[in-house]
Amino acid sequence: MGLNRGIKSFNGKIFFMIMAVFYHVGTMAQQDTEFWFVAPEVSSSHADQPIKMIFATRDDEANVEITQPANPGFAPITFNIPPNSTYSQDLTSRKSIIENNPADHVNHYGLYVHSNVPVSCYYEVAASNNPDIYPLKGINALGMEFMVPSQDDFKNQVGNERIDIVATKDNTKVYITPTDNVEGHVPNVEYSITLNKGESYCIKATNTTANRSLKGTVINSDKPIAVTISDDSIRPGGNTGGYDLIGDQLIPLNILSEEYIVIQGFADPQNEKVYILAVEDGTNIHLDGSPVISATLDRGEQYKFLLNTPSKYITSNHPIYVYHLSGHDDESGSALLPPIACTGSQDISFVRSSGGQFSMMLFTEQGNINNFEVNNNPSIIQGSDFAPITGTANAWWYARIDNPPIGVGGNNITNSSGKFHLGILNELGGSSEYGFFSAYASLNLGEDVLICEGSDHTFDGGEGMDSYLWSNNSTTRFITVEDTGYYWVNVVDDMCNLSDTIHLGFHPNPVPDLGPDTTVCTNVAVTFNPGSFKDYLWSDGTSNPNLTTDIAGEIWVKVIDVNTCSASDTVQLINFPVPAPLLIYHD
C-alpha cells in the first residue's frame, strides 16, 4: 500500500498493478503541482554554477513557491508564470544551502516546489563546461524502494558519484546498502538513518576509478522519499578530452516496467552506452525483439552495451531500470529512461539553454509521426524524419533531429494525434546536458489511512479518468467509507488500465476517566484528573489537565489525543450539606 505502484507490459498488452497518490498525471510532460528534490553537490574545482530551476506552463497561469521545509531560515521564493510560458528561477545566490553537502550527514537542504496548477519543472546546473539537467518527476519520483543504475566505464576527473535523498515526512527511516565504499560506510552492509520532512542525506562514493560505481545500491524507506543520482565530471576520453556532470532523478521500483526504447544521441560512438539494472533475480534481457536472451541478471546485476545503432528496443521478463549515457562528442549527459507502457506526452515544453548544438531524440507510435508541431510550426518535425524501430513490428518509430531551427529560450512540441517521448541534448559551452521528458500515467490513493473510530474518510480515484470501479461497486470518482479494511479502485485513463489499493484503519479513541460520581461536604474542593492527553476542554471552559472545583453539578471533560481523536467523560459532584450545629446545654 502507499506508493506501491507498478507497471507491467507484455506482447503489446499493458497491465498495471499500482498499489497506493490521488493526483493523476495527464498528457503534458511530467507535470504536477508538487515536486520534491535535493540538488547534488558539484565540484567547484571544475564548475558548479549557475544553478536554476526551469518551469513551463500550458493553458493556466501558475503561482509557484519554492521552500525548504527543514530550514526555517530559507526565505520562500514565490513567483507567477503566465499561461503557455517558461520561467527560469536562478538559485545561485543560495547554492551553499541548496547543494546537499556534507556527505554522511543529515542536512536541511531538501527543496519542495508547490504550484496551484500543474507545471513541468527541471533543475539545471548551467555551468558552461560542466552542465546537466534533472527533469523532476513530481509524484512519480516518490517511493519507498529504489535501486541505483550507474555507469562504470569512465573515471571521475574531479568530483564523485553521489546519491542524494530527501524525506517528505517526519520520522522517515531510510535503509541503505551501498555496493562500494562510501563516506562513513563499507560495501554490502546495510545501515540506516532517520530524516524529518525536508531533511536530506548524501551517499558519496570514495572511489573515482572507471570500474568502480554504486550500481545496484539499495535504498528502502518506511515513508516516501525522493532520490537523485549524479556522477560529477566523468571523463569518457580517458586522460584527454572533455569531462562532464551526469545524473537524473530516479523513479521507485514500483513504476518500473519491462519494455523500453532508447534512441542514439550525438556522442562519440564509443560513449553511447546503455546500462540495464535488474531488480529481481532471473531477469532475462532481449534486444530488438529477438527471442535470444542477451543477458540473464540477478537482482542488483547490470548489463551494458554500446549503442551503435540509431535505436534499440529492450524487453525483459521482470522490471528493470534503463539508464542512457549520451551527449555531444566526448562531452556526456545521462538520462533515466521511462518505460513505454502508458507513458508519453502530447505536449512538452522545455528551454533551449544556448545557441550551441541542440539535438532531439523522439519516438512515438506510427500513426502519430505526421502530426507534430514545434511552436505551432508543423514543418520542423515531419513524418519523413522518422524510421521504424527494429523489433516493434513497425508499431514504434523514431527520429534523431540535430540542430532544428528553434530559438534559444522556451519551446513547445505538441502532437495532435497521440503521445510521444522526447530526449533533448543541449550543448552549453563545449559541454552537453541530457534530459528526457515523458509523462507517467499514474494513480495513487495516498498512503494507508488511519482515522478515529466512528469517523469516515473520502477516497479520490483521480481527476479526469474515463471510468471508475471501486471495491464497493461504486462507479464515481469519490467514495466515502467508515469501515476498516482494504479498498481498491480500477480506472481507465486514455486506454490505460490503472489500479490502486489502500488500507483504512482506526486509531483507538482516547478513554478519559473522571472516576465515579463524588459526594463531598459543601465548600470542599475536589480535583478531577481524566488522564494524560494532548488537549482538554472542561465544562467550566478551562483547558488545564486537571479541574479543581467545589461547585456541585455535572462535571465533564472533552479530551483530544495525539492522533486528534476525541472522547468525553462526565461525573456528578454532589454536595452533602454540613449538619446544623448541635446545641449542648449545661445544667
Average pLDDT score: 90
> N- to C-terminal separation?
91 Å
From the alpha carbons, calculate the radius of gyration and give it in angstroms: 29 Å
Coarse morphology: elongated
- Approximate strand percentage: over 45%
Helical residue percent?
under 10%
Can you tell me about this structure?
This protein is an all-beta fold and 587 residues long. It contains no helices and 44 strands. The strands form ten sheets. Strands 17, 18, 19, 20, 21, 22, 23 and 24 form an eight-stranded mixed β-sheet that branches. Strands 3, 4, 5, 6, 7, 8 and 9 form a seven-stranded antiparallel β-sheet that branches. Strands 10, 11, 12, 13, 14, 15 and 16 form a seven-stranded antiparallel β-sheet that branches. It starts with 6 loop residues before the first strand and ends in an 11-residue tail after the last strand.
Offer a concise description of the structure:
The protein has 587 residues and is an all-beta fold.
